[in-house]
């Protein structure tokens, strides 16, 4: 199990009520399950539209259960942004 920081941006930050928080998770899927358990409701809906960066690298279309998290790593939660 890795200790990671989940950082929320824009609508995800508003829905979570915090800019970032720590989680213990081995994969992105486990981290997102923990986020949903801690923040049921609006954040769960926002996550459906988000893209994710793991330590600065885009997850893209990879299955979240296959994306391993490094101890001390960061998961960036990026809702769709308007404009450039």
3D structure, described in words:
InterPro entries: Beta-grasp_dom_sf, MOCS2A, Mopterin_synth/thiamin_S_b, ThiS/MoaD-like. Pfam families: ThiS. Belongs to the MoaD family. It is globular and about 25 Å long. It is α+β, with helices and mostly antiparallel strands. It is 29% helix and 29% strand.
User: Which series of helices and strands comes N to C?
Assistant: EHEHHEEE
Strand tally: 5
Beginning-to-end CA distance, first to last residue: 37 Å
Strand order of the largest sheet: 2-1-5-3-4
Query: Which structural class fits the helix and strand makeup?
Result: alpha+beta
Please mark out the parts with pLDDT under 50 across 5 or more consecutive residues, or reply none.
none
Q: What do the pLDDT scores average to?
A: 95
What structural keywords apply?
single chain, 84 residues, alpha+beta, five-stranded mixed β-sheet, 3 helices
Short characterization:
The chain contains three helices and five strands, in the order βαβααβββ.
Describe the secondary-structure layout.
Elements: E1 2-8, H1 10-16, E2 20-25, H2 28-38, H3 42-47, E3 51-54, E4 57-58, E5 74-78
Parallel strand pairs: 1-5
Antiparallel strand pairs: 1-2, 3-4, 3-5
InterPro entries: Beta-grasp_dom_sf (IPR012675), MOCS2A (IPR044672), Mopterin_synth/thiamin_S_b (IPR016155), ThiS/MoaD-like (IPR003749)
Pfam families: ThiS
Family: Belongs to the MoaD family.
């Amino acid at each position: 199990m890795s200790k990671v920081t989940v950082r929320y941006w824009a609508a995800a930050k508003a829905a979570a009520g915090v800019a970032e928080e720590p989680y213990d998770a081995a994969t992105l899927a486990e981290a997102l399950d923990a986020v949903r358990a801690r923040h049921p409701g609006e954040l769960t809906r926002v996550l459906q539209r988000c893209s994710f960066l793991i330590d600065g690298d885009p997850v893209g279309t990879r299955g979240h259960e296959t994306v391993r998290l490094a101890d001390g790593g960061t998961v960036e939660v990026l809702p769709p942004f308007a404009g450039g």
